[in-house]
Each structure stands twice: as structure tokens, then as C-alpha cells.
């Protein structure tokens, strides 16, 4: 009976431009009838649903809004970067389920006992060993048998995808895992996605591969920080930040002290990171919780190169922090007298002293990916986010810094084998089976191989199983 989990309040009256959605949470046996603007991001919808529940869900960041199979279409988890209105409902009231993310099986003739036998602790441990050993064929074979690659290592709390980002050659491993049903936004025990881990490990190959497979550059970790933010704080290869920005990474993410990416770049003296951030429209006069602008941060940390770049781009020398101090005064107080003098006496004629990268026009974005602007404008907050983040006028550019790379990555957000999963109370020990009753002919057990050629000297492949 459904009545045990219904809200006591009657359903809200529908409004123009709004969608009425009935949401079932199987683990709590709760039904919610909620109304959302059609342009509301799925991420924000999920956060609102989680906040409305009578009981907090353990590991809630690994729950997703699931659209069950209907009318011959497979069930799937909604892409959290898309708007709710992008998913048409069958009637005036939509129906979704909030479930723990698992692989969705589209194969026929599944043997539930065989699947459970695959998911023993010994097999899962062996699967992780195959990843560490780079055994792509063994991984693909185990996934083809039905193994769900969305689980946590009991010792480290990592997922198969995050483990793969730490290998020497992660490209083929990541492709095999995603084609085998690994979800790109399935998080570790501490809330990090594979893209976060790839950035932390300074693996440009893993970052570009995940982006090409459809990972979002705007995923949030347990602290509400994005991969772009970590690319600065971890002092990674500047090309990583460039790749994320090229794929529409949202600027202006803040930590608990209000520090944005541009503040962190100035703190650590990361000139190339700062170039890319400014080039893609970062706010050079943004303030942290103390009212300090990036130029204030340069002044206290004696980062002359970054200070010159900010001044060259037009940063305000006279900006006051909440202690009514200018960057010049902060530099004097910090004992950085030479930098203080440079800030005070800086003139536009000084640009010849600054070795800038040649300007080559406005920034270029990956045309195959939707802009992440909606995340900022919609006010979507990540798991554990403490403060709001906003995109600082990405369409009004200061004089550009270096032009981003010209590479055109491919994008394939979901594998043909899985698009999601269902949930259970015991996430690590149980598996879920979601099948679709459809008629199929000429089923090829191993599918076909699609070759993805990115350049004349680089060949990347993915095994796409077609049913």
C-alpha cells in the first residue's frame, strides 16, 4: 500500500512553467509529490528531495533520480547537469524514484544467482587487483558477465573508477569500466568522483579521458569543491585546468573561507593557472570572506608575477578589504616592500616588463558539451557546500590570456551496457537487477568494437556492447 509513505499535505496546484513530480524513495517507503520549475537542474531537484525526507539517507551523494522503464524505453538515472524539463513525462504528473546508484542491466536472460555469485568480496577484490594490474581484457570480461563496477574498496573507500585514475596508463582502463557500467558520478566514501581523484593525482590522461567519456567538470566533492578548484589548490599541471575550462567548468566556486580559484592561484603563485582562469572570465576583483581580492592575496604572499598579471588585466589597486586596507597597505604590513612599491607605482607602460603569452582571441569551449553556466545561475550547491558559488560574467572578457588547446574531445556520457542502477539497504553486499522486457533479435554476445581516433598518432578505443 502506498498510503503509508504519502505526504499528509495535498499535491500543490500546478503552475505554468512548473512540473508536478511524484517521487518514491523505496528505502524509506516514502512518496513525495513536489513541484519544480521546468528549468530547475536535476541536481537541485535531488537536493530538494533529500532535504524533504523525514530521515537522512546514508551516503546520500550516491543517490540519483531514476526514471523507470516505460513504453519500451530503458530505465535510467537522470543526468544531474540537465534540466528537469529536458525529460518528458507520460502524463501531467511525472514519476521518479530516488535510488542508490547501481548498474542498470539491459541484458535478457539474467541469472540472479549467477550475478550474486559474481559479487562476492573475493571477486570484487580480484576486480580491483585487475585494475591495479592494468588487465583491461579481464575487466571487460568480468563486466560482460554482469559484475557491477560501482562499489567501494572496504579498505580505502575508493571506487574502481577512482582506483583506475591512479594507474600509469588509465585511458583504456577507464573506457573499459565505463563501458562495463561504471557511473561517472559514483563517489568514494568521502564524496569524491573519479574526476576529482584524477585531478588530485595530477593525471592529465585520466582527466581528459573522463571528460571525453562525459564526466562533468562541475561535480562537487564532500566539501562542495569542483575539480577545477582542486586543480589549483593541488598545484597540478596547468593543462588540467585548461581542459576543465574548455569543457565549460564553472568559475567562482568558494571554500568555507570564501576563497575562489583565482585567490588560490595567487596564493600559490600559479601564473599559468591564473592566465587560464582570467582568460575564461574569472573575477579578478572577487572577494573572500575577509574582503580580500586576488591582488590582496598576492600582496600578503609576495607573489609579484601574479600581481603584475592582475594589474595588467585591470585589477583594482585601490580595492579595500573589510579591514579598510588596500593591496599596497597589505603588502607593507606583510613586509613585502618591493611588491608594495610595484603595486603603488604600476603604470600601463610596465607591460613590456611582463612576459605575457601571445593573445589569440576569445576562449573556445567544447561544442559537444552543454555549458555549466546553469549550475551557477541556478544556485546549485554540491554535497557539503558551505557557501554559494557564482559564475562571474563569463561572457564579458578581459583582454585574453593564452588560447586554450585546439583538441576536440569526443563525448559519450553513457555506455550501451548501463545507464544507472537501483538501490538496496545493504549497498555493498547486495546487487540490484533492473531488466527491460523487450524483444531482441540477432543478439551479439560480445557486441562490436568502435574505434575512436583523436589524432594521427593517438588511437583510443572503447568496446561498446550493442544489444
UniProtKB/TrEMBL annotation:
One of its GO terms (cellular component) is postsynaptic density. It comes from the Eukaryota. Pfam families: Ank_2 (PF12796), FERM_f0 (PF16511). Keywords: ANK repeat. CDD domains: FERM_F0_SHANK. SUPFAM superfamilies: Ankyrin repeat (SSF48403). InterPro entries: Ankyrin_rpt, Ankyrin_rpt-contain_sf, FERM_f0, SHANK. PROSITE patterns: ANK_REP_REGION (PS50297), ANK_REPEAT (PS50088). This is Talin N-terminal F0 domain-containing protein. It comes from Hermetia illucens (Black soldier fly).
Amino acid at each position: 500500500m502506498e498510503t503509508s509513505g504519502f505526504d499528509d499535505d495535498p499535491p500543490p496546484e500546478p503552475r505554468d512553467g512548473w512540473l508536478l513530480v511524484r517521487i518514491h524513495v523505496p528505502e524509506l517507503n516514502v512518496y513525495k509529490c513536489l513541484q519544480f520549475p521546468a528549468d530547475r537542474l536535476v541536481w537541485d531537484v535531488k537536493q530538494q528531495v533529500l532535504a524533504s525526507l523525514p530521515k537522512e539517507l546514508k551516503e546520500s551523494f550516491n543517490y540519483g533520480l531514476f526514471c523507470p522503464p516505460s513504453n519500451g524505453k530503458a530505465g535510467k538515472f537522470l543526468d544531474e547537469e540537465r534540466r528537469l524539463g529536458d525529460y518528458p513525462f507520460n502524463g501531467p504528473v511525472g514519476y521518479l524514484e530516488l535510488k542508490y546508484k547501481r548498474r542498470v542491466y539491459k541484458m535478457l536472460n539474467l541469472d540472479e544467482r549467477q550475478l550474486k555469485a559474481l559479487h562476492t568480496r573475493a571477486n570484487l577484490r580480484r576486480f580491483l587487483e585487475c585494475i591495479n594490474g592494468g588487465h583491461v581484457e579481464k575487466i571487460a570480461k568480468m563486466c560482460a558477465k554482469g559484475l557491477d563496477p560501482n562499489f567501494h574498496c572496504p579498505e580505502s573507500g575508493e571506487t574502481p573508477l577512482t582506483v583506475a585514475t591512479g594507474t600509469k596508463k588509465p585511458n583504456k582502463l577507464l573506457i573499459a569500466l565505463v563501458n562495463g557500467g561504471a557511473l561517472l558520478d559514483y563517489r568514494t566514501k568521502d564524496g569524491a568522483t573519479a574526476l576529482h581523484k584524477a585531478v588530485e593525482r595530477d593525471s592529465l590522461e585520466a582527466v581528459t579521458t573522463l571528460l571525453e567519456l562525459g564526466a562533468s567538470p562541475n561535480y562537487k566533492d564532500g566539501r562542495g569543491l569542483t575539480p577545477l578548484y582542486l586543480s589549483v589548490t593541488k598545484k597540478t599541471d596547468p593543462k588540467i585546468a585548461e581542459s576543465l575550462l574548455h569543457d565549460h567548468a564553472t568559475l567562482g566556486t568558494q571554500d568555507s573561507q570564501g576563497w575562489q580559484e583565482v585567490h588560490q592561484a595567487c596564493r600559490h603563485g600559479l601564473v599559468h593557472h591564473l592566465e587560464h582562469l582570467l582568460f575564461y572570465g574569472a573575477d579578478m576583483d572577487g572577494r573572500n570572506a575577509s574582503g580580500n581580492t586576488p591582488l590582496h592575496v598576492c600582496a600578503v604572499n609576495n607573489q609579484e608575477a601574479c600581481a603584475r598579471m592582475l594589474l595588467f588585466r585591470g585589477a583594482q589597486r585601490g580595492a579595500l578589504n573589510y579591514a579598510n586596507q588596500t593591496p599596497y597597505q597589505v603588502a607593507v604590513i606583510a613586509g613585502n616592500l618591493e611588491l608594495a612599491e610595484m603595486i603603488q607605482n604600476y603604470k600601463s607602460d610596465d607591460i613590456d616588463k611582463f612576459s605575457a603569452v601571445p593573445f589569440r582571441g576569445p576562449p573556445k569551449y567544447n561544442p559537444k558539451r552543454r555549458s555549466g553556466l546553469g549550475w551557477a545561475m541556478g544556485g546549485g550547491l554540491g554535497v557539503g557546500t558551505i557557501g554559494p558559488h557564482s559564475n562571474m560574467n563569463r561572457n564579458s572578457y578581459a583582454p585574453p590570456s593564452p588560447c586554450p588547446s585546439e583538441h576536440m574531445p569526443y563525448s559519450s556520457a553513457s555506455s550501451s551496457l548501463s545507464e544507472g542502477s537501483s538501490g538496496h539497504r545493504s549497498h555493498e553486499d547486495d546487487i540490484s537487477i533492473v531488466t527491460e522486457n523487450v524483444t531482441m533479435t540477432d543478439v551479439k554476445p560480445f557486441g562490436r568494437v568502435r574505434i575512436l581516433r583523436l589524432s594521427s598518432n593517438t588511437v583510443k578505443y572503447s568496446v561498446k556492447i550493442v544489444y
